[in-house]
Amino acid sequence: METLTLDLFHQGKTDNEIAQILMDRGYRSPMHPGTILLSTVRAIRLKQRLFQVHHQSHPRHVPGYLTLSQLATTLDIPPHWIYDRIHNGCIQIAKQPTTGLYLFPDEPRTLNLIKQLRQGNLKNIPISERYQDV
Q1: In angstroms, rounded to a whole number, what is the distance separating the alpha carbons of residues 67 and 105?
Q2: How many Å apart are CA 45 and CA 32, to the nearest integer?
Q3: Is the pLDDT of residue 22 over 90?
Q4: What's the pTM?
């Protein structure tokens, strides 16, 4: 079943289509003998790191900007700390309209401001809105 699932995926079939083909060929989910669950197909696919949506397998990258996760990794701070500061107004930033991401300019000044905020040297920081055209 796993081999057939992977072959069908590589042929461009969706999880729904794969599940139907497997059922038509007599396969069944282990805990649900009357059907093939989408979660069974998805689990087989994801176990092999096969993704249907491009962004599932590739982190977002916007040239000249850092996403919130990328910023947290760069500064070695928890992403939750940044989200908390955004929600309480200490970091003044809006989500980029088309992607829905918080985009921070990938500049030394941005990193320095976040570091100063983390150290308690600043109470709040405005982040540039020039990314609105990205």
Answers
A1: 9
A2: 19
A3: yes
A4: 0.55
Binning the chain into helix, strand and coil, the percentages to the nearest 5 are 50, 10, 40
Helix 2-10 and helix 38-47, axial crossing angle in degrees, nearest 10: 80
Count CA atoms closer than 13 A to 2's CA, side-chain side. 8
Query: DSSP letter at 80?
Result: H
Nearest alpha carbon to residue 127 among 2, 113, 117: 113
**Three-state SS sequence of 3-28:** HHHHHHHHCCCCHHHHHHHHHHCCCC
Question: Is residue 51 pLDDT above 60, yes or no?
Answer: yes
Chain centre to alpha carbon of residue 48: 18
Amino acid letter, 14: T
Token code pair at residue 46:
């994801």
pLDDT tens digits for 54-68? Answer: 554 455 778 899 999
SS3 of residue 110 by DSSP: helix
